[in-house]
């Protein structure tokens, strides 16, 4: 058998690439933050749209870039629709604030449960919004399925996870991945999901056992301290290695879940292969922690230097009220407010450029598609989804990108 015949038999493997970089994304984010401030928050819908177009246009599969057709006006309208939905909740929260503490507590707990359920609905609808506005080679992606059913499945699995102290999480995760991807489409080509809880069971339960042993050993050592003050100090000291272990467990499981579940996604005869390295995630988070510390230190230094003479009398007070703050002068108060907003913008840009872009790039560059030739026969179908789902997800701060 010659090389030509071998190439014809072997399935084609397509690769994905991401050509964006942090400075390019900063060029989108920083002007957006300034305009968000000037427009009292309204411009953020335009910033989100520009950010998505940056990610999509710099992501190519088999040499062809993705396209995003969503507009800022659609996001704004969807958010306004969601606000109308939330008006009764605002009235409810105001009513609860006038009741007795015990009655208010039960009311807030019920509202929190309802909002968690609603977040599942919103995240599924937001995913549909983004998919139906995503094109590759001129063909639209899509999503079928029922958002209310997805929210119910997510909610019931969450109750089981809580009841089992987290042991049921692989079952929940596999179930939700399966529902999402079996209702995902590329034109007339339906996606599939071949994974199950067994796909991630080994790393999850091993890491779970490691974390339980570490926490149990720390609790035993603290209990044997005897003196209450010594026990508190010893517990605080042991919390540091426990947090480090928990962070390593989180990163390890994130890499394994992402790699194994994405590698279980199919589209017709095509199949994804993704491999995310845990150490790459660790370096990414360490780099973010370093930059976060530097940015925080710089802002603290700026505040202490610029407002040292003004703030010193206030620092001497045990308690502050609005009248004392107003004594600084409204220009200085406005200056503090602007520094605070600048700090929030810096944190947001830092998280997006280091973690958001870093993780996206990591996933894209590690993606391979087996039998990619099969996708060329897909035919276009489907339309854009309604606007309310994305707006609801935005109001609840769920979803991504």
Key features?
401 residues; ten-stranded antiparallel beta barrel; alpha+beta; 14 helices; globular; 69% helix
Please give the count of helices. 14
Gross morphology is: globular
Structural class: alpha+beta
What is the CA-atom radius of gyration, in angstroms?
25 Å
Q: How large a portion of the residues is in β-strands, by DSSP E? A: 5-15%
Order of helices and strands: HEHHEEHHEEHHEEHHEEHHHHEH
> How is the largest sheet built, in terms of strand order?
1-2-3-4-5-6-7-8-9-10
Question: Would you count the extended β strands for me?
Answer: 10
Relative helix content: 55-70%
What gap, in angstroms, lies between the N and C termini? 48 Å
